[in-house]
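Students often ask what a holo structure prediction actually looks like on paper. The answer is less mysterious than it sounds. You provide the chain, you provide the ligand, and the output is a string of discrete structure tokens encoding the 3D arrangement of the protein together with norvaline.
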Amino acid sequence: MSILKRDFLGIKDFTVEEIYRIFNLAKQYKSDRKKGKFSSVLENKTVGLLFNKPSTRTRVSFEVAISELGGRPLYMSGATTQISRGETIRDTSDVLSRYLSGLVIRTYKQEDVEEFAKSFSHPVINALTDLLHPCQILSDYFTIYEKKGHVEGLNVTYIGDGNNVCNSLILGADILGVNIRVSSPSGYRPPEQILKLVKNKKLLEMDTRPGRFISDADVIYTDTWISMGEEKAMAAKKKIFRKYQINKELLAGAKKDFLFMHCLPAHRGWEVTDDVIDSKNSVVIDQAENRLHCQKALLHSLYSEL
Ligand code: CP
Ligand code: NVA
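The corresponding structure tokens follow.
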């Protein structure tokens, strides 16, 4: 591995051209898989997955992606490593650099992933922090691209908590030229730390009214009101967000062909009702499938261009 290793810590680590290259690669990987064709981009490489939070989609799609690229995934629950007993990120990272060829990290603080990336000698991938979820959003814009044929100029409405998924959706929209509209209760808007990174301010609109950006939305996206680590706030947030539930009434004036998206896992009956998440507009399972193809494309880009 060259010293010019590349990380993926946030969606802004890629240019618009690189994102479209990943989309094209993902499309290729998706069709190759149907034909039973696999690549050997990660041959003889072991990629670690260090997770401090639960996961179904991210863990499994990365493990399968790494295996199907000819590599070996090695899952580590943070709680079973010496980090849980206070070993520093620096020491852990220096040691793991000698064994592994890459690290996929899911944890709380974005700064921790950044600290790993500084000393780890190989690519580090952010598999979700409290601040960002870039792998999710890379794949979600691929899903939109696949379903709508393009992404630039589309209207994407996010209704709910200004959380990690919302933050990455905003930053991705800024790169891809998407009109991004966010409806969230006051006090739950995306943080200034994210808003100040938005270059094309005209593309971003925010409002507290849940129905404000429904009528011309090409995509309506929501996520849980209670992210991992926020369980104590559950009762209070459930009350505050009640009006932000995506249900048939809220969607009454929506376009016929809008896409309903959710990164999953969903709290059915909270942020979305069954009749919406199970409707013909919903693409949530395709979204989840595309995590696999996009992460293969991501790994391919990080490894083959070095
Ligand atoms: N969407 C997503 O990241 O799901 P998991 O928490 O199951 O990985
Ligand atoms: N916002 C959610 C996303 C889960 C994939 C969380 O952080 O728990």
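The first helix runs from residue 16 to 34.
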